[in-house]
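A quick aside before the break. I want you to see a complete sequence-to-structure record at least once, exactly as it would be stored in a machine-readable document. Don't worry about memorizing anything.
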Amino acid sequence: MLDRYGTGIFVQKVTLQSVQPPDKVQAAFDDAVKAGQDRERLKNEGQAYANDVVPRARGTASRLLRRSERLQRPRSCSGPRATPRAFSRS
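That is the input. The structure line, written in tokens, reads:
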């Protein structure tokens, strides 16, 4: 901003001391700070839940897919289970 006006002033550092909102807005300021903290907390809780649920859901899906693929395979007509007991000549 100072460069626009050609002041020749260069600001190196700004230090704020005792930053306190006016009494009339303190409650709103506190609410805003709490809302930001709540947002972060809820975001972290959601991420922790996802980190727990998603891998378990993927494992369940993988097991179900393997089972469905196994059940869809054509069955062989040889071996001990190929002939029903009612038709076997033992």
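Two observations worth writing down. Residues 26-72 form the longest helix (47 residues). The radius of gyration is 35 Å. We'll return to this after the break.
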